Amino acid sequence: MDAVVNWLLMFLPRAIRQGVPLLFGSTGEILTEKSGHLNLGIPGIMYMGGVSGIIGAFFYERFAGDAYIGWLAVLITTLSALLGAAVMALIYSFLTVTLRANQNVTGLALTTFGMGVGNFFGGSLAQLFGEGGSLSVKRTSEVFCKTLPFADDLGAVGTLLFDYGFLVYLSVAIALVVAWFLKKTRAGLNLRSVGEDPATADAAGINVTRHKYLSTVIGGAIAGLGGLYYIMDYTHGTWSDGGFGDRGWLAIALVIFALWKPASAIWGSFLFGGLYVLPAYLNFGDNRSMQYLVSMLPYVVTLVVLIITSMRKKREHQPPASLGLPYFREER
Amino acid sequence: MSEKVVKKHHREPLIHITKRESMAWWKAWSIRGVAILLALAVAGVIIMLVSDLNPVDVYVAMAGGNFNLEDPSQTRMMWVTFQKVAILLCISLAVTPAFKMKFWNCGAEGQTLMGCVAAATFMIYCGDSMQPALLFPLMLLVSMLAGALWGVIPAVFKAYYNTNETLFTLMMNYIAISLVAFLEIVWESPKNSAKVGVINLFTKGGWLPEINGNRYLPVIVTVLLVCILIFIYLKYSKQGYEISVVGESQNTARYVGINVKKVIIRTMAVSGAICGLAGMLLTSGINHTIYPDAVEGQGFTAILVSWLASFNPIAMIFAAFLIIFLQRGAGAIATNFGLDDSLADIVTGIILFFIIGCEFFIRYKINFRHSKKGGVD
What we know:
The complex is a heterodimer.
Chain A: H1 2-33, H2 42-64, H3 70-98, H4 103-128, H5 138-145, H6 155-162, H7 166-184, H8 186-196, H9 198-203, H10 208-234, H11 247-257, H12 262-281, H13 290-294, H14 297-312
Chain B: H1 2-10, E1 15-19, H2 25-50, H3 55-66, H4 76-100, H5 108-126, H6 132-161, H7 165-186, H8 217-236, H9 238-248, H10 250-255, H11 260-287, H12 298-308, H13 313-336, H14 343-363, E2 364-368
Antiparallel strand pairs in B: 1-2
Helix pairs in contact in B: 2-3, 2-14, 3-13, 4-8, 4-9, 4-11, 4-12, 4-13, 5-6, 5-7, 5-11, 5-12, 6-7, 6-11, 8-9, 8-11, 9-11, 12-13, 13-14
């Protein structure tokens, strides 16, 4: 019994930490998709959020020197992550909303670009400033990793619930706020109507373009925090090329799994995080290959959910009706 | 509120956008050409900032990354460039029929990888024992079937249940990637290396044969053939016509008696099969091994190439060349300056943004308030 509890106490926090980038990413993507825009650029945006954050921290650490202030570092790092991600999302919305470009193509281009920028500056910034080695901002990262002071005194509960950096709590809070916004507010209703049927929303006097822009840019910024969390907290402020991996795509998968509901994305992200780290915790003995079959699970589960929801055709479980389609007022 | 509305009605908006009926092909292509030039200029400035090269040197260095400029008699580098163009072109050709049908196949990565898996299976188990005259046709057939299978699964669900194909095909990619990671351990050699290693290194069993002692030509020639076939298929065959009709409007297609479900499934089978072929060329003709990242994201790049060429197979040759040229060129510059080779992705991204943006000016017309021609009276 003790062994099981100990195993869970090791496994669950890892699952939660692994799930947080996915939660940020999918909350942002849900907000975006509710306006009818399938943003496949989310992986690139998350990369961009991560690299902008680490660049902000890098410069602050360099220029502040002895006058280093922890909270200011966090503020600067977070703001630059938000800015980097929002600019990416702005490129996407300019191309897809104003120039009515194809959303899939634009999103994929954005992902190529974002991953390129991320890996390039993450990999070369230290080089460009003649410091060599890999980019690392340990000092600021420590502030990000700071846990609640009473976490260590509470035993198992402390380890499970309070032993995380502030971004973990922020991810849950943002998901809840977005869920409330979409479901309970007038603006959220308007946004959903834009995603379902932009022509009708337009006729009802809702500014379609503004809703699409705002939801894409804010959604992108939220997703960017996922990259920030990964860099500053999960990897303790060290950039590694391609380290972020396929988490961006997993975040998009999670949107489907959560049936476009941010509140479901919370537990969904922890489940996905668990599936993601599960292979490392299972003992396969000589059967090392099995762990790769296990790592297939999040995608298989998502596929099954996607198939079942499309077969059952239950209204409240469907993607926004105009998802992926451009809107041009004068088109009939 | 009401005052504002009244005010709005008094003035005609500054910009008024209308859809163009059509545009002469040379006009459309010159707009795209200008966009590419603009993008190259922006990319040049960015490379200039991170390296110490002046703009002209940037492009000379890029060319140097693709062709051996110092000694043109050394043709290896050039052949590698063309071979890479061929593979990217092959996958781009593969996604085109589906795209023309407005089926957003983002699964070329997985479909190609399944072709790699099939080819590697043949190389490992039959490479040394089977007669080449039997081995290669069989390998080709099974690779294409494997790719087709990976493409048909999402198509069936799309046809019958209208399941979102973008998301479905995306998920299929990662299932294929995990499958290869799994097989990598099953097939690992030497033991515990977690790598497949070069298959049949000494016997070269199952390696695509050389043409005139040139090991790059088989891939290039095959892809050029595919290019011509796809061009004919899309432009002159009945099936190609059906694809265009379904892509324009499914309702029209139904009205004229086209079986939309059948067209969707059949087209994705073709699309997946060509991806499978690309996978076989990649594994049997180039890599001679298999690993999860074997396709290197080209399944995604191919979508962009196909779109860049407006789904025209001949234009796709140039689009694929442009992308490979930039990627290899930027990669070479990055290596020379000790920078990260992701510089190539940044440059590719910028080009794509410009091309994507310029399509707007091809499809729509912008009328200013006082412009007389074409405006609404």
